[in-house]
Amino acid sequence: MGASAYESERAEERREERKTVRQVGDLVDRGLADRSEREVLERVAERFSVAITPDLVDLVTPGDPADPIGLQFLPSKRELRILPEERVDPIGDDPHTPVKGITHRYPDRLLLKPVHVCPAYCRFCFRREKVGPGSEVLSSDELAAALAYVRRHEQVWEVILSGGDPLILPPRKLAEITRAIAAIDHVKVLRVHTRVPVMDPGRITAELVEALRGRTTAWIVLHTNHPRELSPRAREAIARLVDAGIPLLSQTVLLRGVNDDAKTLEALFRELVVLRVKPYYLHHGDLAVGTGHFRTSIEDGQAIARTLRRELSGIAQPTYVLDIPGGYGKVPIGPSYLGPEGEDGRRVVEDPAGREHVYPPRGGDGR
Ligand code: SF4
């Protein structure tokens, strides 16, 4: 074989190696799944989409069952264990869907979901029954109807692009959507929820960043769960967004075995602040089907939040929240530091170190 033929064959091999892995057989061949589990994992993949990008594969330690990246993206037979309390629509999107692609739960804001695919599929995904190949994007008519809905509802101040992952859209398509939103006078804020900067950072190109910048103020909420996700390429992608003047927040799901210890979360939140991303929400795991092995108890979550409150700078603190099943919205779930009001009108308040104090204190200067 001549040198150039050899080079082009190697280049082709490298391209193959850098492809997103979607088949259980390929996971087995690459040492990312156990051959003896192939059949059961095929059954998992029949129900829940499987994909892992090359950037994420690079972060997995093959053969380590406790690997925090592998746990999040590699299918597991535990997903076939469905608990009675689990739901196909765990946060209740469906009752708030007036037209395809819109979820309108709160008066001043709504979700616009133009796409139902992601570069990789999280094994704990709260929309796992809806995302994946098959129902890829809204058709142009469906998108026009969704935008007409936004236009008709003048109380909508904020449009939240979600999905799927909206940053998987080609920049030109994304620009079409952001331009259409910018033309709606009452919409002042465009919020984009994405995991692309950690899953597939190469997609955050100058053209994509440009598509996000427009007349409507854009905010990005980055979904990230473990400090290992913040690879050098992910950091560069985040910097490209922040340098373009787009403010970034983060969302993290509390996941058993992945990040359910205060030290891991502390490292993640500190690093995010250094990268100019403000930690926003720490989500209690949703009741999505086949995800029971990821959920912690609320008490464990509160204990972690309490430790974070003690150890971590205020700017690195997210709010620990629960999305109430049935579509009733999201609320902070503590822990609470404030006791009930006593007969004397005073309360007991706990400080971050766990010491109790009376408020208002007795014996102030005014008596
Ligand atoms: S990126 Fe979001 S929507 Fe996509 S699989 Fe992960 S959790 Fe689900």
Order of helices and strands: HHHHHEEHEHEHHEHEHEHEEEE
Question: What is the class of the largest domain in the CATH system?
Answer: Alpha Beta
Oligomer designation:
single chain
Query: What is the correct CATH architecture of the largest domain?
Result: Alpha-Beta Barrel
Termini separation comes to: 95 Å
Spatial extent as radius of gyration: 23 Å
Low-confidence stretches: none
CATH topology of the largest domain: TIM Barrel
- What is the number of helical segments per DSSP (H or I, 4+ residues)? 12
Ligand catalogue = iron/sulfur cluster
Key structural traits:
alpha/beta, binds iron/sulfur cluster, two-stranded antiparallel sheet, TIM Barrel, nine-stranded mixed beta sheet, 367 residues
Describe this structure in words.
- Helix content is 32%, strand content 16%.
- The protein folds into three domains: 64 residues, no CATH class; 238 residues, Aldolase class I (TIM Barrel), CATH 3.20.20.70; 32 residues, no CATH class.
- With 367 residues, the protein is an alpha/beta fold.
- The protein binds iron/sulfur cluster (SF4).
- The site of iron/sulfur cluster has 10 residues, from loops.
How would you concisely characterize the structure shown here?
The chain is of the alpha/beta class.
Set out the fold topology.
Elements: H1 3-17, H2 24-29, H3 38-47, H4 54-57, H5 68-73, E1 102-106, E2 109-112, H6 140-152, E3 158-161, H7 171-182, E4 189-194, H8 196-199, H9 206-212, E5 217-223, H10 232-243, E6 248-253, H11 262-274, E7 277-283, H12 298-311, E8 319-324, E9 329-332, E10 347-350, E11 356-359
Parallel strand pairs: 2-3, 3-4, 4-5, 5-6, 6-7, 7-8
Antiparallel strand pairs: 1-2, 8-9, 10-11
Helix pairs in contact: 7-9
This protein binds iron/sulfur cluster.
